[in-house]
Amino acid sequence: MTRTAPSQDIDESDLVVTHPKDHAAGVKAVAVSMQRAVEQMGTVRTAQTLPRLNQRHGFDCPGCAWPETPGHRKPAEFCENGAKAVAEEATLRTVTPEFFAAHSVAELAGKTDFWLGRQGRLTHPMVLRPGASHYTPIGWDEAYRVIADELRALPTPDQAVFYTSGRTSNEAAFLYQLMIRSFGTNNMPDCSNMCHESSGSALSESIGIGKGSVTVPDLEFADLILIAGQNPGTNHPRMLSTLEAAKGNGAKIIAINPLPEAGLLRFKDPQKIGGVVGRGVDIADEFLQIRLGGDMALFRGLGRLLLEADDAAPGTVVDRAFVDAHCAGFDEYERAARAVDFDTVLDATGLTMTQLRETAEALIRSERTIACWAMGLTQQTHGVATIQELTNLLLMRGMIGKPGAGLCPVRGHSNVQGDRTMGIWEKMPDAFLDSLDREFGITSPRKHGLDTVDAIRAMRDGEATVFVAMGGNFLRATPDTAATEDALRRCRLTVQVSTKLNRSHVVTGETALILPTLGRTDKDIQAGGKQVVSVEDSMSMVHLSRGNLTPVSEHLRSEVAIVCDLARELFGAGHSVPWAALSADYDRIRDAISRVVPGCENYNERVRRPDGFQLPHPPRDRREFPTHTGKANFAAGELRWVPAPPGRLILQTMRSHDQYNTTIYGLDDRYRGVKGGRRVIFVSAADLVELGLIDGARVDVVSEWTAADGTVEERRVHDFRVVEYSTPKGNAAAYYPETNPLIPLDHVAAKSNTPVSKAVVVRLEPVGSN
């Protein structure tokens, strides 16, 4: 079942830059999807796999968390990037023990992320022993003993860190957190810490639950949809079909983003005649090209305009009945909004007063408004306050708890929200821990654990010495690459439960283990027969996922089996948790979930319904707000934005269209006109003139950050091609993970501790000038 893997690395001398596209999807997307699928899986495996993707009796996409429309499935219920994600996972290329014998860790460390990912699926458990230059095979039982011995030898369980990726199923996540808490720690950093932690922090304070309040039918029914700091054409392409349906029902869509994104300009649905031979559908009616970090000022300025409109026509703009009955803190917010200076708003946003007034009028006219957002808001120092400011606008208008209105944080990885529901959080409430303890006879620790940034600090400082990752590519997902590398190398043991080779396998602790696991597409056979898993999408729908492909190696084990087998070795046969029984039959896991996790009652029956079931959401369902006040809370934080210092730019890091999170599918960002490379930085024409640069110049990018003691720290990445692009003056953009080294570990959002990847002060130095 093997195929020849590519042997060459990236040659960016062939990089070509052309004009950006003015539309997303279309026939080209279909062609690329099929090309990548056949290249990785072959024709037969492609035919076996893609028709089952996101279907009721198929498997959930390992890419994004966008939900399906209830009661409806298209024949091809996937997008271009979903097809790429499946091709990467279901590839016939394999990374065998012979591969590791031929390539030292030092050699692999010199390869790019793209090359590493293209080598294929891992087939055997491997170990890198102290002082060794190569990984060598290890038996599963010995691998478990290595981990268990190291964990038991720790002076305290809090010296271990357990990371979780959003790929992990609900069943695996539930057992993983159960094992970790049975061991005695809450050190559970996860990928949420780096993406929507700011959303969870903001919404928990404002409405009492850290999840969005809308469904796909709500979006299709809305009058007005605000899309802020999000690029659905690349990051959540199936959202474009929902937006197309909303447009067909008369919705107005306003895009708020520093870059014009093809998916928000025009969508050509390849499953419709108009998307093949016609023009497609224009998505955004208005594009507010906002400066990085200016969103909070925009939303507060809009708040002032809404209040002034209500002054002119009392009772027609502010939903006083909703505010009086269901909200707290309105008076303080009103004072802050009325006091905001419009010149400040215009300076922070780069927008015009006309744009502000037209947006305010759209909010006033709309009877059903939804606000969507993603990383552009969350990865700011003031990301939590920005999301609360946006929430204020909807609360003022009574736009929550009714059809076609509400809040929509668009989650990234496919089950990142489900992992959190299942208990993957360093600060789970006592009520959850009490239920867990009653169900399994354990004593969960109550001391809060480490999130991602604090975990890196702990490993760096020698306060944590064992690192275990359930999926993901921790090294490339995190900020301050040099600091993270140093932190991992200081560990005694690093363990990666993985499907494919990635950078985290070549920057290791003294001892390192790679444990190969089944993917979403793989058939999972346990002692109790064929198993299925469940996941939760971005809108709180929980449904089954059924892999059906023959695994590429008989040595792969499911994440559930890996957790249970490790727990049996760690705790011994007399432990109160029936690990072997849970591993044999995943229905038993779901039965336990139904007794522990709120909203999951009768889990096994409800998850087998055609579309699964939706978890409860009190603000959406009953206009009940489980906050500390018992009401929805307006927020009135200090207004913040990110001005660009003289001669400097504010950098945002972002994905290309040929990647998902840290996985690089290819080297073409088709929508932005970049082909054959990734080391580019997008800069406005005005800034090029001011900085004395030209399109095509080669530069080093140097970040500048003022530490708490007042010293200025610099970080550098080398030899990037400047691309003249439409972005606000003073702003720039570049791809991650190539620019992650520029983001200081301590550059984090207030309250959420999320790395601030959308507000990095940089200067550009011509190559060779330093």
What does this structure look like?
The chain has a six-stranded mixed beta sheet, with helices on both faces. A six-stranded mixed β-barrel has the order 25-33-30-32-31-34. The termini are far apart. With 770 residues, the protein is of the alpha/beta class. It contains 31 helices and 34 strands. A hairpin with a 4-residue loop joins strand 21 (533-536) and strand 22. It is globular and about 75 Å long.
Uncertain stretches of 5 or more adjacent residues: 1-7
- The level-1 CATH class of the largest domain: Alpha Beta
Given the helix and strand composition, which structural class is it? alpha/beta
Number of helices: 31
Q: Write the CATH fold name of the largest domain.
A: Rossmann fold
Largest sheet: 6 strands, mixed
The total number of structural domains is 4
Rg to the nearest angstrom? 25 Å
Please count the beta strands (DSSP E, at least 2 residues each). 34
In order across it, which strands form the biggest sheet?
6-5-18-17-16-7
User: Percentage of helical residues?
Assistant: 25-40%
